[in-house]
Every structure is written in structure tokens, then in C-alpha cells.
Write a structure and sequence with these properties.
Layout: H1 2-22, H2 26-35, H3 55-66, E1 86-87, E2 90-91, H4 98-116, H5 131-138, H6 141-176, H7 205-213, E3 217-218, E4 222-224, E5 230-233, H8 237-247, E6 254-258, H9 264-271, E7 278-283, H10 286-294, E8 303-307, H11 310-319, E9 324-329, H12 336-350, E10 351-359, H13 368-385, E11 387-395, E12 415-423, E13 426-429, H14 431-440, E14 450-453, H15 454-460
Parallel strand pairs: 6-7, 6-9, 7-8, 9-10, 13-14
Antiparallel strand pairs: 1-2, 3-4, 4-5, 11-12
GO molecular function: protein arginine N5-methyltransferase activity
Subcellular location: Cytoplasm; Nucleus
Function: S-adenosyl-L-methionine-dependent protein-arginine N-methyltransferase that methylates the delta-nitrogen atom of arginine residues to form N5-methylarginine (type IV) in target proteins. Monomethylates ribosomal protein L12.
Length: about 475
């Protein structure tokens, strides 16, 4: 009987919190969040057993129920709708009445309150939607932007904590040997920071080693790993064509592609009207390398194939003083942290001062909000590394039959953002990095990049 009463109390408390969130009743909501505790989660993250709604879901979804707007004439796809599309029968950017504006303001304050109390930004409901997915689908742009910003903060924090953990692990290795591999643990207590739902590969050496030792299935349409996950697919061809156009801005350039896969962009390089005079390819998987050899890539004029991981190959190229006019990056089974190390540590030593750099931008492409979050994370990390970036938006074809036999869809959104990067004309680095760069780039005395240290910046009054 006592257990029944406890269960009833838990359900009652849960519904009280969800009701206060949906009514945007901040006074009651704050009181309930402080007063109620739950054994399996924080009060701010409770979920309705039928809908899977958290308080964040409820606060955003309630805006649709309260607005007196005709229903949408056509449904927009979950996880991938555009904010500029027609939603609920009216454009998302249409003017709102004062009552509707007041509703949005109260909803925004409620969402801020929940996030400030530690609500998980990307919790999924029973329809596989995050709170941000609901805001995006309903066209509530300001609420959507709040959720995107919350995701950016969470991902930046997790990335920084990951860096600290790597430092701790390396220090422990020196004393006690290899640390336990905890990166694949999925259990999570309420006191721990939320794990990311953004689809990016886990950063583990074992993950990469497993991929490199696994059997691949290669066809004209796709490459699948032994778990039937898509490594690369032919629908990416237009993306690769446009990427080649963005990189090959003049004839006889020296280019490098990291991650051959199906060789789509390498074919584009070779067939381009600005065909490069020197074409380097870095590839690590034995099956792909064997396929390349069978297709004659090792004998092509001007092509040099590097057999191995970029982490091993690129430092050698830097030490040889090699530089490139264009670099493309598209690897598999690596983490965002690996990619960040690539553009912040390797590209600066390999890219010509006036060179171009791009990569396959698939981070978080399982849903629109994740894609938008990682665009902002990327922009901040790229800025810190000294790059300017602009994005060219491309339509992605409707993908249906392409996923037949594929274990996991790695693309679920409508538009691809093609990144086009170059060094900023002026960027500021700490003095130790400025001291290192001339030694790493000793063959580029004519560099037009103005490298200014933080100490020089303060002495000259730069801001």
C-alpha cells in the first residue's frame, strides 16, 4: 500500500511540474523544482510516461495549443524542417498579435528557467523529438534559438571536459598504466552532466582500430562496414562536386584529400577543368587501399597515395616542409575531437597562406537542431584556430531507397552546408604558438598571414 501511495505521489508530482511548465507559471514551477525529488532523474528532467514530454517539451508544445491558428495544410518532416517553411498554416516569420507575443515571452522565460536549472536540452520524447525539434517544426524561431544556444553550451562543456579527461588519463598512464576505457558507458546518474545525443563517432582508439581491421563492402553505390553502417554513399556526389569547385580555384594547384572512401572527390579533382598538378591522397583502410590499387590510382600521373592514418602521415609532411593549395578532409570512425586536432594542429602547418580548406560537414546530421548546434560549435573552434568560414547551402536529394540495407541513417535533414575555409588575414595567438609557427612553416617566408601574439596585441592596443 505504501509503495502504491509512493507511486501515486511520484506521478502526481511529475504531472504538477509538467502542468506548471506548460502554463508557463514560473512561480509555481520554481517552487516545485525545489520541493520535489525523484529517484531516477532530476525534477527538471521528469518525463510523461505516455508522451515522453519533459518540462521543456511541455513548455514549447503548449504554445501551439494556446495559439488560435489554423492547422498546417501540409506536415513538415520531423528533425529536418526549415524555420522559413510554412507551419500551422502561416509563415513562421509572420507578425504576431500582442497576445501571441506575450505567450512567446512567457514561454521563453520558462525555457530559460528550466535550462538554468539544468534541464537536458536534447532529451527525446516518444516521437523521437527533442524540445528544439518541436520548436523548429512549429516555427517558434526564438524558442528554437534558445534550444540551439543551450546545445552549444552543453557541447562546448562536454568537449572541454573531454580534453581534461584526456589529460587526466595521460597523467595516470605515466604512473599506473592504461586507464579503463569508459567512453562506451551509457549509464548516467542524475548528478552527471548529460551525454550528447548528437551523432558523432565516439573518440576511442579501439573504435578506429576496429574499423581499420574490419571488412568493408564496396560497391558502385556505397561502402558499408561490417555492421552495415554507411561509410560513404553515392548520393554525396553533388556535394563532392561543389566542394571541388570551392577548392580548385586555379589550374595546377597542389591538393590533398584525407580519406579516400569511394574516391568521389578525388574523381572530381581529376576531372575538373582546374585539374591539380599534384594530388596527394591519405587513406588508412586496407580494403580501400586494395580497391584503389586495383583501379590504378597509384599509377595515375601526379597522384601520390599515402598509406596510413593521417595522424602518422601529416607530421611527416610538415617536417618535410610540404604545403598545399587546397585540403579536403573526410574520414570515418573518428571523433569531433580528432577533427578539431586536425584543423587546429595540422592544417596550419600544411595549408598555403592563401590556400583553401574544406571537409564533409556531416556533424549532427541526424536532426536539424544537432546540425545547427555543431555549426556554431565549429564556427567558434575554427575562429579560435585562425580560420574564416562561410557556408554554401545545397539541397540534398530525397533519400529513401538509398538507405535500404543500411543499419543507421547518417543523414536526416534537407540541406547541406558546404564549408569554405581560409586563414584569416589577421588572427591572434598566444606567444608560444607564434614562436613555433616560423619553425613549422620555414619554407613559407612570403606568408601574407599577419600572426600577432597576445602580448603584441596588448602592447599595440589592439582589440
Amino acid at each position: 500500500m505504501n509503495s502504491n501511495n509512493e507511486a501515486e505521489n511520484v506521478e502526481l508530482h511529475l504531472q504538477e511540474i509538467l502542468l506548471a511548465a506548460s502554463q508557463h507559471d514560473l512561480t509555481t514551477l520554481r517552487h516545485l523544482l525545489r520541493s520535489y525529488t525523484f529517484s531516477n532523474c532530476k525534477s527538471v528532467d521528469v518525463q510523461d510516461p505516455e508522451t515522453g514530454y519533459t518540462p521543456l517539451h511541455a513548455a514549447i508544445a503548449a504554445c501551439e495549443a494556446e495559439e488560435d491558428i489554423e492547422p498546417a495544410t501540409s506536415a513538415t518532416p520531423r528533425n529536418g524542417s526549415s524555420l522559413e517553411q510554412v507551419t500551422n498554416g502561416a509563415p513562421a516569420t509572420s507578425g504576431r498579435s500582442s497576445q501571441e507575443k506575450e505567450l512567446m515571452l512567457r514561454a521563453q522565460e520558462t525555457v530559460r528557467c528550466l535550462l538554468q536549472n539544468g534541464a537536458i536540452w536534447n532529451q527525446l520524447d516518444k516521437n523521437d523529438e527533442t524540445p528544439g525539434c518541436i520548436a523548429n517544426r512549429l516555427g517558434f524561431q526564438q524558442l528554437y534559438e534558445l534550444m540551439v544556444d543551450a546545445g552549444v553550451r552543453a557541447e562546448l562543456l562536454l568537449n572541454r571536459l573531454e580534453g581534461y579527461e584526456k589529460l587526466d588519463d595521460s597523467e595516470e598512464d605515466e604512473v599506473t598504466g592504461p586507464a579503463d576505457d569508459r567512453t562506451n558507458e551509457t549509464s548516467q546518474s542524475c548528478d552527471e552532466p548529460p551525454q550528447s545525443n548528437i551523432v558523432v563517432p565516439l573518440e576511442t582508439e579501439s573504435n578506429i582500430a576496429h574499423y581499420l581491421s574490419s571488412a568493408l563492402s564496396i560497391s558502385a553505390e556505397r561502402i558499408l562496414d561490417e555492421d552495415s553502417n554507411g561509410v560513404m554513399m553515392s548520393w554525396e556526389s553533388e556535394i563532392m562536386s561543389q566542394s571541388a569547385n570551392a577548392l580548385l580555384v586555379a589550374p595546377n594547384m597542389k591538393v590533398m584529400n584525407i580519406g579516400f572512401g569511394m574516391g568521389i572527390i578525388d574523381d572530381q579533382f581529376q576531372l575538373h577543368h582546374n585539374r591539380p598538378s599534384s594530388h596527394h591522397i591519405v587513406e588508412a583502410h586496407p580494403t580501400v587501399l586494395a580497391d584503389m590499387k586495383a583501379k590504378g590510382w597509384h599509377e595515375k600521373t601526379g597522384v601520390l597515395v599515402h598509406d596510413g592514418r593521417w595522424q602518422d602521415i601529416l607530421p611527416k609532411l610538415v617536417s618535410e616542409g610540404q604545403t598545399f593549395d587546397a585540403i579536403y578532409f573526410d574520414t570515418y570512425a573518428e571523433s569531433y575531437s580528432d577533427f578539431r586536432d586536425f584543423f587546429s594542429e595540422q592544417v596550419i602547418g600544411l595549408l598555403d597562406p592563401t590556400g583553401k580548406f574544406s571537409f564533409f560537414n556531416g556533424l549532427g546530421a541526424d536532426r536539424q537542431i544537432s546540425y545547427d548546434v555543431y555549426q556554431k560549435v565549429l564556427e567558434m573552434d575554427l575562429f579560435e584556430a585562425g580560420f574564416d568560414v562561410d557556408w554554401q547551402e545545397l539541397e540534398v536529394p530525397k533519400l529513401t531507397d538509398e538507405w535500404e540495407g543500411v543499419n543507421r541513417r547518417y543523414w536526416n535533414i534537407e540541406k547541406y552546408r558546404l564549408p569554405r575555409l581560409a586563414f584569416r588575414s589577421t588572427f591572434y595567438l598566444p606567444q608560444p604558438l607564434v614562436d613555433q609557427i616560423p619553425r613549422r612553416r620555414s619554407n613559407n617566408a612570403t606568408s601574407n598571414i599577419l600572426l600577432t601574439s597576445s602580448s603584441e596585441m596588448s602592447s599595440t592596443g589592439a582589440t
